[in-house]
Amino acid sequence: MNAETLHLRYSSSSSFNTRSHSSINGFQFENMEMEDDNKITDMKKRPPSEFGDSGWLRNTFFMRLTARDVFGVVKNHPIPCIFATTLLFFMGVEYTLHMVPSSSPPFDLGFVATRPLHRLLDSKPALNTVLAGLNTGFVGMQMVYIVWAFLIEGRPRATIATLFMFTCRGILGYSTQLPLPEDFLGSGADFPVGNVSFFLFYSGHVAASVIASLDMKRMQRWKLSYLFDTLNVLQTVRLLSTRGHYTIDLAVGVGAGILFDSLSGKYEEKRKKELLAGSPDGSTNGAFHNSKLHENGEYLSVSAD
């Protein structure tokens, strides 16, 4: 038996197998060729007619998915899968929950959780004032650190983030002015000092603390950052207990701190690239006139001399 004969037999057998697969019970998808790993490998070779008038579907992502791929998503990406589950759950909650009447105060789960502390502070005004004063001291610590990082260490990122954050807070707070809770426990020692009016959405107390803590972590000042995180949690509990903020104000405050720290980092990186591109020797002009940049992009000092 010569090579030509073998080739003819192999070709004939292959042709027969293809025809038999394509005609099994009329199920066109049986013609797919599979590898050992159970993935479709020959979809692009199939004529569009096998999908009727939707031949473009053969190149879509979901048509290439297998059972192994689906279970692999659950195994390798559990957090997004949990989010997908909670999405379905809260869709059900949203469509079945009765809205709070316009004549009633807003419902806040944080207020419900801190009712005992609220009653305690309501019955002891002196304790409320002491805690307010301590909280104001913590706000001062945040501001001192953020300004110190810029003026003393020459790292403006936290300061830029704080400016971005408070500007956006002012715009949003003025755009939608939330009512002050009826059982708000004010204090002349609280910040803003003097028990004056303030924007509720979102919490600048929490956002500034997050910005400072993130900067500390970048500088590997771990103990100080953990201290700030702990004080921020205590601050959150106190603000809920005094009804100084709604829960949503505090939650968005955390997100705002992370967001504006990231945006200020992108802004700073962009400016550094522009300054380095404009001055080959590493010296900068403009906002940081006569300053020098280290090779890693940080400012060595405000003055190059």
UniProtKB/TrEMBL annotation:
What's a Pfam family this protein contains? AtPDCT1_2
Regions annotated as coiled coil: none
Domain AtPDCT1/2 transmembrane, which positions? 107-266
Transmembrane annotation, as ranges: 78-97, 130-151, 158-176, 196-214
Q: What is this protein called?
A: AtPDCT1/2 transmembrane domain-containing protein
List the keywords (alphabetical).
Answer: Membrane, Transmembrane, Transmembrane helix
Where does the record place the region Disordered? Answer: 275-305
Q: Which GO terms describe its molecular function?
A: diacylglycerol cholinephosphotransferase activity
Q: Please name the PANTHER family in this protein's record.
A: PHOSPHATIDYLCHOLINE:DIACYLGLYCEROL CHOLINEPHOSPHOTRANSFERASE 1-RELATED (PTHR34674:SF1)
Organism, by scientific name, is Solanum lycopersicum
